[in-house]
């Protein structure tokens, strides 16, 4: 049930560097929903313990509190935000559109995040070289995204959760020299990224 005037402010626990926290932050922004952000660094010594206390049994982030409800896992959180609150719908109306959105989200989870963020950006930030084969995998991932991306937003004429997912990764992809070179060869994706800058989290 959507509610335009919910008096209970949602509370999101996470870290601004976290891709999956950023997805949730962007979703709140796209829906124009007031919320409170509680910083929780799971890489700090007490981070996993604090995350478990906040409601995540695996000691991870993000975590959402809304009244008596506690949610973890980004897909559950973002769909709850979209379904629960008034604002622009962030999921396509038709079955094919929703399937395409879910396909993009799955690609981010299984390919973009492990290959382009952890495989390219993280080694670069730590002064290491990527593992052998990572560049080829990265090119294949970006080629698939370039083929699938719509002319305006990823899944059509308005942004969806798919756009929030991919946008949360793009700064990290572009910050890697190899990722930036690959992305520059994906013109449709780069045109999308110009529009998607507006989806970046404000918190």
Indicate the topology.
Layout: E1 11-14, H1 19-31, E2 36-39, H2 47-54, E3 63-66, E4 69-72, H3 74-84, H4 95-125, H5 134-148, H6 161-175, H7 177-184, H8 187-196
Parallel strand pairs: 1-2
Antiparallel strand pairs: 1-3, 3-4
Helix pairs in contact: 1-3, 1-6, 4-5, 4-6, 5-7, 6-7
Number of strands: 4
| Helical coverage, percent range | 40-55%
Largest sheet: 4 strands, mixed
What does the average pLDDT come to? 94
Task: Show unreliable segments.
Answer: none
- Strand arrangement, major sheet: 2-1-3-4
Give the overall silhouette. globular
Number of domains: 2
Backbone CA Rg? 17 Å
Secondary-structure class: alpha+beta
The name of the CATH architecture of the largest domain is Up-down Bundle
Number of continuous helical runs: 8
> Which topology of the largest domain does CATH recognise?
Glutathione S-transferase Yfyf (Class Pi), Chain A, domain 2
Strand content: 5-15%
Compressed to H and E, one letter per element, the order equals EHEHEEHHHHHH
CATH class of the largest domain: Mainly Alpha
Gap between N and C termini: 26 Å
Which key features would you list for this structure?
single chain; 203 residues; alpha+beta; Glutaredoxin; Glutathione S-transferase Yfyf (Class Pi), Chain A, domain 2; 4-stranded mixed β-sheet; 8 helices; 4 strands; globular
Descriptive report:
Helix content is about 55%, strand content about 10%. The protein is α+β, with helices and mostly antiparallel strands. The protein has two domains: about 10-85, Glutaredoxin, CATH 3.40.30.10; about 95-200, Glutathione S-transferase Yfyf (Class Pi), Chain A, domain 2. It has a four-stranded mixed beta sheet, with helices on one face. The longest helix is centred in the middle third of the chain and has 31 residues, at about 95-125.
């Amino acid at each position: 049930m959507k509610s335009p005037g919910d008096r209970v402010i949602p509370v999101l626990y996470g870290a601004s560097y976290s891709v999956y926290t950023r997805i949730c932050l962007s979703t709140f922004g796209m829906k124009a929903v007031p919320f409170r952000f509680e910083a929780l660094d799971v890489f700090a010594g007490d981070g996993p313990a604090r995350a478990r206390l906040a409601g995540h049994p695996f000691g991870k982030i993000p975590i959402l509190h809304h009244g008596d409800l506690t949610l973890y896992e980004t897909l559950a959180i973002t769909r709850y935000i979209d379904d629960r609150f008034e604002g622009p719908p962030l999921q396509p109306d038709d079955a094919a559109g929703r399937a395409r959105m879910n396909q993009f989200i799955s690609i981010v989870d299984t390919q973009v995040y492990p290959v382009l963020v952890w495989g390219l950006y993280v080694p670069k930030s730590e002064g290491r070289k990527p593992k052998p084969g990572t560049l080829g995998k990265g090119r294949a991932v970006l080629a698939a995204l370039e083929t699938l991306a719509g002319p305006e937003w990823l899944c059509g004429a308005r942004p969806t959760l798919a756009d929030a997912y991919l946008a949360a990764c793009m700064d990290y992809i572009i910050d890697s020299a190899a990722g930036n070179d690959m992305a520059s060869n994906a013109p449709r994706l780069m045109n999308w990224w110009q529009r998607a800058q507006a989806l970046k989290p404000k918190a």
